[in-house]
Amino acid sequence: MTRLRIALAQINPTVGDLQANIARICDAYDAAEAAGCDIVAFPELAITGYPPEDLVLKPGFVADNLDALAQIAARTRRCAAVVGHVAADRDLYNAAAVCADGRVLGTYRKRLLPNYAVFDEARYFTPGDASDPYELYLIGGVKVGISICEDVWSPTGPLAAQAAGGAELNININGSPYHAGKAHTRERMLATRAADASCALVYVNQVGGQDELVFDGGSVVFDADGELVARAAMFVEELLITDLVIEPVYRKRLLDPRGRRTEEPIRLVPVSDQPVVHAAAAPAQVAALPDPDAELYGALVLGTRDYVRKNGFTDVVIGLSGGIDSTLVACIAVDALGAGHVHGVSMPSRYSSDHSRSDAADLAQKLGIDYRTVPIEPAFGAFLEMTAESFAGKPADLTEENLQSRIRGTTLMALSNKFGWMVLTTGNKSEMAVGYFTIYGDSVGGYAIIKDVLKTRVYDLCRYVNRRDGRETINESVITKPPSAELRPDQRDDQSLPPYAVLDPILRLYVEDDRTATEIVEMGHDEAIVRRVTRLVDINEYKRRQCPPGVRVSVKAFGKDRRLPITNAYRA
Fold this sequence. Notes:
Layout: E1 2-10, H1 18-34, E2 39-41, H2 59-75, E3 80-88, E4 92-100, E5 103-109, H3 121-124, E6 134-139, E7 142-148, H4 158-164, E8 169-174, H5 182-197, E9 200-205, E10 207-210, E11 213-216, E12 220-222, E13 228-231, E14 238-246, H6 250-254, E15 266-272, H7 292-310, E16 316-319, H8 324-337, E17 342-346, H9 354-367, E18 370-373, H10 377-387, H11 398-419, E19 422-425, H12 429-434, E20 447-448, H13 455-469, H14 476-480, H15 500-512, H16 517-522, H17 527-539, H18 541-544
Parallel strand pairs: 1-2, 2-3, 6-15, 7-8, 8-9, 16-17, 16-19, 17-18, 19-20
Antiparallel strand pairs: 1-14, 3-4, 4-5, 6-7, 9-12, 10-11, 12-13
C-alpha cells in the first residue's frame, strides 16, 4: 500500500480578478508544499473564477489566463498542483493543468460539458474527446487521473475509463453551485462512482458567491470502496489536508463482472514515482453537514457577503417594516457584513401599525445596527395632491398602494446615492412568483437576498435564528402576526393571495418541477386556486425580469435557471 498526502484547496476566487486568484492559489500551494503534500487540487477554472461567461470571448482575457497559469506553474516544486484554467487551441477548453517542478506537465480537457439549469458551457467550450488521450500521472507510486466536475456525474464517464486504464486515484475539480439538499445527493453519487470504479476519488469544490450563484465547498475524499475519508466544511475557505492510503485493487477489478478493459488511449506521465514517507499521518477531518435550516441560511449569508464585497460595497441599507421578510434580510445582512455595515430605515405611512414600528425598532436594537426613521407621509400627501385633479371621481385602489411603495423605494435609493450603501430588497420567492410586489417600488435595489426563498421557509429561517441565538432575536410577534404590506387599512396578504401554506406547494410544482396546471390539479390541489396561481406566475414574468439578482438556493430559481419568454401565450 501507498500513502499519499493530498490537499484540497477549497478557495473563493473572484471572476475576472486574475491577480487576486493567482495570489490565492499560490498561498494555498505554499501551505500544501510546507505540509509535505504530494498533490494539491484547486477548483474548476480557479484562475478565471467560475463561471467566467462571456469574458472568455475576449482573446486578451484568455491570453492573460494562460499567462497566469505560467506564473503559477513556475512557483511549483515537488508537490504537484492541479489547476483549473481556460485552455486555448483551435477552440477553447475548460481544462485542468498538472504542474510540478516549475512547469506544466500535462493538461486535461473536460469531456462532459453541462448545458442545463444554470450552465451554459457548450456556449463557450469544446469538449475533449477520444483523440485527446487520457493521461495518468505517476505521483508517489500512484497512478492519478484527472477529471472536471460534470465528468464524474456520468457512470460511464472519464472516471470509469481512467480506472479501467489503471488509475488508482481520480482528482475531480469543481465549480458546483449550491441548491438546498445538494450535498447529500452529491456525496451519494461520488461514493457510488468511487466504489464502482474501485478508484479513490478526491472532489474539490470552490466556495463563495458569484452573482446569483453560491458555491458551498463541501470538498470530500472517498476511498476505493466508496467510504468517506475526509470532508471540508461548507461555506468557508479551507485547505483540507488528508493522508489517503492507496491499496492494490486489482483483485476487486479482476472479479468485477463488468470487466475492466478500456478502448480509450492511456498515457503515463511520470511526476514523482517514489512514495514519500511522511513523518506523521495527517488526521482525518470529516466536517459535519449542517441541518437544512442552517445550510440554507449559510448559503444566503455567503452569497450576500460576496456579492456586496466583490462588487466594491461595504455597507447595505434595508427598509425595515417590522415584517418577517425585512427582519430575516436584516439578520442575514448582519451575519454577512457585521452590524456596523447594516443600516435599517423605517418609513412609516398613515397605515403603518404601532406594533410594526416597534418590532422594527426592537430588531435594530437587538442586532446593533444603525436605525433611522424617514416618514413618507409628506411625500405621499404631496403625490395625492398632485394627482387629485387627474384622479377626480376615481376611488382609491392599487394606485395609491403602489405610490407608497415607490416613495419608499425612492427614499432608499436616495440614501444609497448619498452614502454609497447598496439597497437590499426584501421580497421572497412566493411574492416574486405571483407578482405580489411593486415594480419600481419595493423591488428596487442592488441585491434580493431571499428572492429564491418561499415564504414558508422564511418563517422556518426566522425560527432558526432564534434557535441558534438561544434568545428571541426576532420577536415572536413578528413570526405569528398575519403578514401584511400595510398599504391600506387592515390589509393582510391572504386577502390577495391564498394562504402561503397552500400557495407554496403549488409554486414548487409549477416553478421548480415544471408541472402543468392540469397535473397539479390531478395531484389533489384546488383547481380554481391552481388556475389563478399559475396565471399570476405567467403574467408577471415581465416584472421579475426587472428585479435585481439574488441568491439561488433552489433547484430552479427565477433568473439563470428559468428562462421563459415574456411574450408567451401558452397556457396549459
